[in-house]
Amino acid sequence: MSRLGASVHLLTSTGAAGRVGATVSSVCSVSDNPPTLLVCLNRTAKVNQIVKTNGVFSINTLIHDHTELSNVFAGQGELPMDERFAKGNWISLATGSPILNSARVSFDCQIKEVSEVGTHSVIFGEVVAARLGEVAPALIYLDRNYHSV
């Protein structure tokens, strides 16, 4: 899978189960009517159950200079969640899930369906709000390294 290049995103969520965030690359557009996307989360990841319990999440697509932020939310340094969020500037849209102010694009979603497939949960979210950010080169992950496109 390391040879399959992918955009890098921060998934965030807030609600009754708490505020969490994680770096993800398994994100895909599913439908434009209603606007829907999916994200895959490992079932053993702590963020998985929190997101499902909250029922909402946002996807924040990272730009080329977000490498450090991506690493922090991937767990580098094992910072507590509050310290991870302190590394960025956040706003909220419809669901309250954190939206990265400097993201290329952000999608605020309500969970509509979850499918358990192998080691991962495939979470389908209907986009209830979106925010366009700076037009800048995107951050991708390929061959176990970051690249800018």
Layout of helices and strands:
Blueprint: E1 6-7, E2 9-13, E3 20-24, E4 27-32, E5 35-42, H1 46-54, E6 56-61, H2 67-73, H3 81-85, E7 90-92, E8 98-100, E9 105-117, E10 120-132, E11 139-142, E12 145-148
Antiparallel strand pairs: 1-11, 2-3, 2-6, 4-5, 5-10, 6-9, 7-8, 9-10, 11-12
Summarize the structure.
The protein is mainly β and 149 residues long. It has helices at 46-54, 67-73, 81-85; strands spanning 6-7, 9-13, 20-24, 27-32, 35-42, 56-61, 90-92, 98-100, 105-117, 120-132, 139-142, 145-148.
Structure commentary:
The chain is mainly beta and 149 residues long. 14% of the residues lie in helices and 48% in strands. The chain has helices at residues 46-54, 67-73, 81-85; strands at 6-7, 9-13, 20-24, 27-32, 35-42, 56-61, 90-92, 98-100, 105-117, 120-132, 139-142, 145-148. The strands form 3 sheets. It has a 7-stranded antiparallel β-sheet, sandwiched between helices. 32% of the residues are buried. The mean pLDDT is 96.
